[in-house]
Specification:
Chain B: Its EC number is 7.1.1.-. The structure holds 2 protein chains of 2 kinds. By secondary structure, chain A is an alpha/beta fold. Chain A has 28 helices and 38 strands. In chain A, helix 9 runs antiparallel to helix 25, helix 9 crosses helix 26 and helix 20 packs across helix 22. Chain B has 18 helices and 8 strands. The chains are: A alpha/beta, B alpha/beta. Chains A and B meet through strand 4 and helix 2 of A and helix 13, helix 14, helix 15 and helix 16 of B.
């Protein structure tokens, strides 16, 4: 929101004899693109700024109205000037631009037909735009060897036009070090020193940043089709709680292969992901195609022909969807008639609507979050803190502009990677501010980066080394208790009038550093505090909140008059799953799996009980022994699931659930923003959204129960409404009615029948090919497209094609702009929010002042004498800690094995050696882990890989020395 | 300390006798370090003023007023922290060998010049960024630096004043572009040697983000006598508008190729005919590059021009480094230009398109023309390519410099180009290097 005093200054410029009002302070290229003028460029990128390398965006600048010749200037390097006269169309400019393309093409191979960039290639677009059609170069093209860069990215250096965007993104923006520009003259080589996996978690963006086909998506290569043959829809990434917007692409093939999802690309969202995604988000999609995918309903054989060795694991057999619905309907009918109890277990990775449907089916009192006690308590705490009117959750642009960042305990590089990328930009905000003093605009990237030696204060307090350490001005490695102390002393220093503040006793943090921190925090106008659920410490979350409140108070007292920006403190709390906060809205802290387990243990009702588990793996949340007991204690387990897991192995009935890109639903991200994702493709087999299975069964159960409907009326009414829902938007409305704080859901997107001038939005581009041929071996006639009951979108080419006409159009395309660079055609100005795009709705949570709750201690025992016990510090990995992405082949191939990190002295104390397998036993469970050594982990702590394929985490905060033993070789 | 004779006309080469380096003792005996003495008596900003008004222009080729350059360094109270002086000794301009001469023969002259410049801008750390191939110069400089340290002329409290300076000798990994001052800064910081965007200018944010001045060897060598003998004396050295003396060199088929210290503004004819002894017997002058490989060809009708920055500029070329390359009537101009373009194409840093991809193309075309495979339309293309590398269209001055001999040769020696094409070969019977030879090696 722009306040009057803050309004953007305007400049009037003349381009080719027409006058325009443009935002002052920007560069001419950005202004021309804002005016929707076709001006070609390569090295410039809205998020990377200008460096003037490619010389492609040249225009003519005239001294005054009498100047007829003018001089060539690079528009990306030229600030717009009020009253200035430019020409894009002047012959000198056009000739020069055509010449630059001609120069670039001297080395570019003519391999468009076999190049995967073809059809969405910025170089193709720019070549056409510049009018270079005839080759005059007669020499040999220079050639390079390509490198193996890991399972994600292909490398084809012969196509390189040396725009330097890859290294500018990879090194300057994302902090990578292993990709570099090598060599000189026309043989500059962008690659690694030697073959190997690109070790930065944002490497996938090279695919989109590269204007041509040097870096392409290797996972896409395996089932490649042209961009114009992909159908797409707006989606939200399901692999963490940041809520990045994505545009997955899908296409069926003629062979009946169910694996239709082909790739994921970025969908611009100004407040969240901007132009970039992390690699888990980009390559994690493969889970939807994985061998573990469930496509048909399956029932456990009652008398298995083969005795399994896996104990409780069952042997399953496919059954028809009608039979599956009928079986679920029987269970529901029994519930309606009061003869069965059905316990619903919801999911933090599934949509609000799915969870709400389950809750509606089983009733609120029988609905449990598919989370253990500790995880749910953390989420509820995050929710309570965010309700406090003194804090707000900052968006990515606000984090990027922060003048101080304090990261408390959360390894955001692995749990909320896109936020870490934003923090990395914040590290440069001081440099940009200094540039401003020198009258250098922020977009003059090379100029700004010359101002070395100036860094934004950035405190990174973490359990172990993190990927942000290289930009931290102060690094603290400590156990959560010490971080709490640090946060509290900082808060105290902010609020205290005077008096001595003593640095907390943390190894590596000396008084001088601490005093500097206090001073920096006092000076900071826009500090951002980042923490989260990662360390599984309620104390830490509370301490982060207390620090944020102190910052808010300090802002109020000191900077109020001088600044119109946000008075609330910026506090970003990272949650674990895509809909963690959404699920937290539907249940209270008691509705967790441990509570359910306790309840089941204590009561012994003769009533048969069904566990209806929706998109949750009990064995990830609970120790196997506890999960086993929970499963053994019920008569029936029914699971709605996307991929097979340890819970589905025990299920009596499995219903195939749609994955995020296959259905429409709403997810609430860590910032409390509700966002809708849409079905990108129809899906294969008998998959459908979980709520549809439930609604179908509810409808069928009515007939089954028939006359003997004796249950209470409330249950009956609930099931009737569930049975009536046909469109997901109806659920959203019902949700909004049931939960007033979720009321904004009703505004999220168009209803299924809200067409635009009678048209739906086409998922397939207007150049989609082969739709009549794709199944020709079975049927020559074109199949009737499946209807979409949830959104006004068509699974066909028919309908609205342009993103400017429909907010649901995720295909980035505009005439002349076939590559992803077309996005600027739908922005008022490069980098600005997309026109008409639904950017989500914040939940209408009631503001409640948070009172720090000292009783909510999470330490299982005092920290006084840790000498014979160890603090468990959960450690995360971008590849390995995501439940669904672990099913993605490329990601799985680079995931480490589960590990435990020890301080060298602790390792010695335990007579263990690094590289050895060790076993940790807790609550009857056993974790086999690879022992690693690190001198940066605090003493008396063990860093344990968390969220890996086995049980996600060790339940306690401490373990005794006796619980650690050498493992199996 | 002996004073300097105000009648001195060759302040740069006054100590040089024979091929050995002038030792510290000999340098001092010849009035050495009296310029520093004078500088230490002055307020730093007065040194800047003096150098500015004396009209000393950068001898690296651009000819920018040295004192003016220094004056952009912000005051210490305005911009606290270190500031740096860098001597650009990365002499790689084709045809230029003047800096090497100074460094090999009279290293203390450079050291004294650097002391004065450092004093003027407030630098306590200085670097000599020397071309990697200049082994002898580096050796002799290292020796001289040690002599100066031992004599207390470098280090803390120099001459018992609140003035200290450390000079580091940094040997370049070798790249023509390092002569561009901002690429030099990147190279010195361990980054890729590519030019930086301006602003900020190095005087404001240079080495490691600190105020930095980069001066050429010869420029710095002008300082000791200027300080010791004063502005009026210095102005009196020049014959025309430009002040001071200059090392002028001549290479090519002249009787005595070499290097001479002469007044600024010495006529070209005098340099070539008198000092270089005129053309070698049997050879006629066809043209010359007045300031090294990256300047426009001038023709014999320009022989009476004065070697002054503005005079040569007005004639359509540049004074550059002041080292002339002479083209005779037995040498193929196309082959000469090809040779130069090969150099520039190889030395392109690879940052901006017209240079990186344009120069190899120029080489490809020239190779074809030289080997008899040229076509008339190639001449159109060459002109186009040269225009694309014109000033303002590229990121730095390398490509415009490369374009200068190319475009001027297309005017001056058009007949030769056409003859190559029409006769399907080189009329001078030079065999062009075979096209298969790799253009560039890393």
């Amino acid at each position: 929101m722009l306040k009057a005093g803050n309004a953007q200054a305007m400049a009037t410029i003349t381009i080719d004899n027409r006058q325009y009002e443009v935002d002052d302070g920007q560069n001419l290229l950005s202004a021309c693109l804002s005016l929707k003028k076709n001006l070609p460029y390569f090295c410039w990128h809205p998020a990377l700024g200008s460096v003037g390398a490619c010389r492609q965006c040249a225009v003519v600048l005239f001294k005054d109205a009498d100047d007829q010749r003018g001089t060539l200037v690079m528009s990306c390097m030229t600030p717009v000037k009020d009253g200035a006269i430019y020409s894009i169309d002047a012959p000198t400019a056009q000739d020069f631009r055509a010449g630059i393309i001609e120069n670039l093409m001297t080395n570019h191979p003519h391999d468009c037909p076999v190049c995967e960039e073809g059809g969405e290639c910025h170089l193709q677009d720019m070549t056409l735009m510049s009018g270079h059609t005839q080759r005059r170069f007669q020499g040999r093209k220079r050639t390079h060897n390509n490198q193996y860069l890991g399972p994600f990215i292909n490398h084809e250096m012969n196509r390189c036009i040396t725009c330097y965007r890859c290294v500018r993104f990879y090194r300057d923006h994302a902090g990578g070090t292993d990709l570099q520009a090598l060599g000189r003259n026309h043989q500059v080589y962008f690659g690694r020193q030697e073959d190997g996996l690109l070790d930065n978690g944002f490497s996938g963006n090279l695919v989109e940043v590269c204007p041509t086909g040097v870096f392409t998506d290797k996972t896409y290569s395996r089932h490649y089709v042209r961009k114009w043959d992909l159908q797409t829809a707006p989606s939200v990434c399901e692999h963490c709680a940041v809520g990045c917007n994505t545009a997955p692409g899908a296409r069926r093939d003629g062979k009946g292969d169910p694996r239709q999802l082909r790739r994921v690309t970025n969908l611009f969202h100004r407040q969240i992901n901007g132009y970039f995604l992390c690699d888990r988000g980009r390559f994690g999609y493969e889970y939807a195609n994985s061998a573990a995918r469930i496509y048909t309903p399956q029932a456990a054989l009652t008398q298995p022909l083969i005795q399994t060795t896996a104990g409780s694991a069952k042997v399953h057999q496919s059954l028809s969807p009608a039979d599956a619905v009928a079986r679920l309907a029987v269970t529901i009918a029994q519930m309606r008639s009061g003869n069965r109890r059905v316990i619903g277990i919801g999911s933090s990775r599934s949509s609000l609507e799915n969870n709400f449907a389950l809750q509606t089916l089983v009733g609120r009192e029988h609905f449990y979050a598919g989370l253990d006690e500790r995880s749910l308590a953390l989420l509820k705490l995050v929710d309570r803190i965010q309700r406090d009117p003194r804090v707000h959750s900052p968006g990515t642009p606000e984090i990027e502009r922060a003048d101080m960042v304090i990261v408390l305990g959360e390894d955001i590089a692995d749990t909320a990677p896109r936020i870490a990328l934003a923090v990395r930009q914040a590290a440069r905000s001081a440099q940009i501010a200094r540039a401003g003093e020198l009258k250098i605009p922020a977009w003059q990237d090379d100029s700004v980066r010359q101002l070395t030696g100036i860094r934004t204060p950035l405190l990174v307090a973490s359990a172990e080394r993190t990927d942000l350490d290289d930009i931290a001005s102060c690094r603290v490695r400590a156990a959560p208790e010490q971080m709490v102390a640090l946060a509290d002393v900082l808060a105290q220093a902010l609020t205290a009038e005077s008096g001595e503040i003593h640095a907390p006793d943390i190894a590596g943090l000396d008084t001088g550093e601490f005093t500097a921190l206090v001073e920096q925090l006092k000076q900071a106008r826009h500090p951002v505090i980042v923490s989260g659920c990662g360390l599984q410490s309620q104390e830490l979350l509370q301490a982060a909140a207390r620090l944020a409140f102190a910052v808010a108070g300090h802002k109020e007292a000191n900077h109020r008059q001088t600044d119109s920006r946000e008075a609330r403190a910026a506090l970003y709390l990272a949650c674990p799953e895509a809909n963690s906060l959404g699920l937290a809205q539907l249940c209270d802290a008691r509705q967790n799996l441990n509570q359910l387990h306790r309840e089941r243990q204590s009561e012994h009702t003769p009533q048969p009980t069904t566990l209806l588990v929706m998109e949750a793996d009990l064995y990830r949340q609970l120790p196997a022994s506890v999960a086993d007991q929970l499963c053994a204690g019920v008569d029936e387990i029914i699971q709605l699931e996307i991929v097979h897991n340890r819970t589905s192995a025990r299920a009596d009935l499995i219903l195939p659930a749609a994955a995020t890109p296959e259905y429409e639903g709403t997810l609430v991200n860590s910032g409390g923003l509700a966002q809708r994702h849409y079905a990108v493709y129809e899906g294969s087999g008998w998959i459908q959204a979980s709520w549809r299975w439930l609604a179908d069964a509810a409808a069928a159960s009515g007939e089954l129960a028939g006359a003997e409907l004796s249950g209470d009326e409330e249950t009956h009414a609930r099931l009737q409404s569930l049975a009536r829902w046909r469109h997901v938007t109806q659920l959203s409305v019902a949700l909004a009615e049931s939960y007033p704080e979720l009321a904004p859901l009703a505004e999220l997107g168009p209803d299924w029948d809200q067409t635009i001038e009678g048209q739906k939005t086409a998922r397939q581009p207007h150049r989609y090919s082969g739709r009549t041929a794709i199944q020709a071996e079975r049927q020559v006639a074109e199949y009737k497209p499946l209807p979409d009951d949830d959104a006004p979108m068509a699974f066909s080419m028919e309908g609205i094609q342009f993103a400017c006409q429909s907010p649901l159009q995720a295909n980035n395309w505009a005439p002349g702009w076939n590559s992803n660079q077309a996005i600027h055609c739908y922005q008022p100005k490069p980098g600005a929010a997309r026109l008409g795009h639904s950017s989500g709705q914040p939940l209408a949570r009631k503001a409640v002042v948070f009172h720090s709750d000292s009783a909510a201690g999470d330490a299982a025992r005092p920290t006084a004498d840790p000498s014979d016990g160890f603090r468990i510090l959960p450690l995360y990995r971008m590849f390995g800690s995501g439940e669904l992405s672990n099913y993605a082949g490329a990601i799985a191939s680079v995931t480490e094995e589960p590990f435990a990190v020890f301080h060298p002295q602790d390792l010695e104390l335990l007579s263990l050696t690094a590289g050895q397998q060790i076993a940790i036993t807790e609550s009857g469970d056993r974790w086999q882990l690879l022992a690693k050594v690190s001198d940066t982990i605090p003493r008396h702590c063990i860093g344990v890989s968390t969220g890996f394929t086995q049980m996600a985490s060790i339940p306690g905060a401490y373990i005794e020395r006796e619980q650690i033993a050498p493992g199996d070789a | 300390m002996p004073g300097l004779d105000p009648g001195l006309r060759t302040p740069l080469t006054r100590n040089i006798r024979g091929g050995d380096a002038v030792s510290l003792d000999a340098y001092r005996k010849g009035g050495g370090y009296s310029g520093l003495q004078a500088a230490l008596e002055m307020a730093p900003k007065n040194i800047v003023e003096l150098v500015k008004s004396a009209g000393l222009r950068g001898r690296g080729g651009a000819g920018f007023n040295t004192g003016l350059k220094w004056s952009f360094v912000p005051d210490a109270d305005q911009h606290p922290g270190p500031r740096y002086l860098i001597c650009n000794a990365d002499e790689m301009e084709p045809g230029a060998f003047k800096d090497r001469y100074l460094m090999e023969r009279d290293p203390h002259l450079l050291i004294e010049g650097m002391l004065i410049a450092a004093r003027a801008i407030g630098a306590e750390t200085a670097y000599i960024f020397i071309r990697g191939e200049y082994h002898l110069a580096a050796e002799r400089l290292a020796h001289a630096l040690q002599e100066a340290v031992n004599a207390g002329l470098l280090g803390q409290r120099i001459m018992q004043r609140e003035f200290s300076l450390r000079i580091h000798l940094h040997r370049s990994a070798g790249n023509y572009i390092c002569g561009e001052e901002t690429a030099l800064l990147n190279a010195l910081e361990g980054r890729r040697a590519i030019p930086r965007a301006k602003p900020p200018f190095p005087q404001v944010s240079g080495l490691w983000g600190m105020p930095t001045v980069v001066n050429n060897v010869e420029t710095l060598c002008n300082l000791p006598c200027l300080l010791a003998l004063g502005e009026d004396w210095y102005r009196g050295l020049g014959r025309e508008k430009d002040t001071g003396s200059k090392l002028f060199g001549v290479s090519g088929r002249v009787k005595h190729p070499g290097l001479w210290e002469l007044p600024m503004g010495t006529p070209i004819r005098k340099i070539i005919e008198q000092h270089a002894g005129g053309m070698a017997p049997g050879y006629q002058l066809r043209g010359f590059l007045p300031g090294g490989g990256s300047t426009d060809f001038l023709s014999p009708r320009h022989l009476d021009l004065a070697m002054d920055y503005d005079v040569i500029g007005e004639a359509g070329s540049r004074l550059g480094t002041g080292t002339l390359i002479v083209l005779d009537d037995h040498t193929c101009p196309v082959a000469m230009v090809l040779n130069l373009q090969r150099f520039f194409a190889r030395e392109s840093c690879g940052w901006c398109t017209p240079c990186r991809d344009g120069l190899p193309w120029v080489v490809e075309i020239l190779q074809r023309i030289e080997s008899g495979l040229g076509e008339k339309r190639d001449l159109v293309l060459l002109r186009e390519l040269a225009r694309r590398m014109g000033p303002g269209t590229t990121f730095c001055a390398l490509a415009p410099g490369a374009a200068e001999p190319l475009q001027s040769s297309l005017k001056l020696f058009l007949r030769d180009y056409v003859a190559h094409i029409v006769q399907r070969g080189c009329p001078y019977r030079h065999s062009a290097k075979p096209a298969a030879e790799p253009l560039c090696e890393h």
